[in-house]
């Protein structure tokens, strides 16, 4: 059974870069034609989609975060990663990685069918 | 402020039926894009509950059902159980913002 697990720095200083990795186990990240997303949830608040990377390596980012976000994939390690630069306290959140399903159809119809447990990242000096 | 509007909370007694609305606009639900629903139990990650407006992933009880009409969608929970206490989020795509959007979430309380 496919599983996703986030890991990375739990505390980041303001203006620095947040880095997280999502390790995929129980299946290959390159099979099935899926894309792989990052989604975040500030404490006590709702969900915000950050971006995805397709199995081909192409990416699509939330326009509100695009200037600060980089998502990449390492097929050899079966994992994908998130970097968010110039962080502020507003970036404090639980960060989830998720598999994006429905990719046989147009991207506007995609959804998030498998989630990791989440990783809390706090931005503080 | 979320692009998709959900009621902050709904409640019901065990066995009752509750519905959660998700209201959008012509740039998202009204544009014909699918609505998907997620259940987030306390302290856990969201879980896909309904995709493509009304389809249940394997393992989701048929007590949960989804529908969509015009610029709105609904999630219904029939035969409410204590284990259904959770936050529920709707999700779609917004062509004006070019982003996947979520509702602010609805907390379901079993009385």
Key attributes of the depicted protein:
heterodimer, A: 125 residues, mainly beta, 7-stranded mixed β-sheet, 4-stranded antiparallel β-sheet, 11 strands, 0% helix, globular, B: 111 residues, 6-stranded mixed β-sheet, 3-stranded antiparallel β-sheet
Task: Provide structural commentary.
The complex is a heterodimer of chains A (125) and B (111). Chain A is an all-beta fold and 125 residues long. Chain A has strands at 3-8, 11-12, 18-25, 35-41, 48-54, 59-61, 69-74, 79-84, 93-101, 111-115, 119-123. In chain A, the strands form 2 sheets. In chain A, strands 2, 4, 5, 6, 9, 10 and 11 form a 7-stranded mixed sheet that branches. In chain A, strand 5 and strand 6 form a beta hairpin. The mean pLDDT of chain A is 94. Chain B is built from no helices and 9 strands. In chain B, strands 1, 3, 4, 7, 8 and 9 form a 6-stranded mixed sheet that branches. In chain B, a hairpin with a 4-residue loop joins strand 7 (86-94) and strand 8. Chain B has 111 residues and is mainly beta. Chain B is 0% helix and 44% strand. At the A-B interface, strand 10 of A face strand 7 and strand 8 of B.
């Amino acid at each position: 059974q496919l599983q996703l697990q986030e890991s990375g720095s739990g505390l980041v200083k303001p203006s620095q870069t947040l880095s997280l990795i999502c390790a995929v186990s129980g299946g290959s990240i390159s099979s099935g034609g899926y894309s792989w997303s990052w989604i975040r949830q500030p404490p006590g608040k709702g969900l915000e989609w950050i971006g995805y990377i397709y199995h081909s390596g192409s990416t699509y980012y939330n326009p509100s975060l695009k200037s600060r976000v980089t998502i990449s994939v390492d097929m050899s390690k079966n994992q994908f990663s998130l970097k968010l630069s110039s962080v502020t306290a507003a970036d404090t959140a639980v960060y989830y990685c998720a598999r994006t399903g429905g990719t046989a159809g147009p991207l506007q119809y995609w959804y998030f069918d498998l989630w990791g447990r989440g990783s809390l990242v706090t931005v503080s000096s | 402020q979320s692009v998709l509007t959900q009621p902050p909370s709904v409640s019901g007694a065990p066995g009752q039926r509750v519905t959660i609305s998700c209201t959008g606009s012509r740039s998202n639900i009204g544009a014909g894009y699918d609505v998907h629903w997620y259940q987030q139990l306390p302290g856990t990650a969201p879980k896909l509950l309904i995709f493509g407006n009304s389809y249940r992933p394997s393992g989701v009880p048929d007590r949960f059902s989804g529908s969509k009409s015009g610029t709105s969608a609904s999630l219904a929970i029939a035969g409410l159980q204590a284990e259904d206490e959770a936050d529920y989020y709707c999700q779609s795509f917004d062509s004006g913002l070019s982003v996947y959007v979520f509702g602010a979430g609805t907390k379901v309380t079993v009385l």
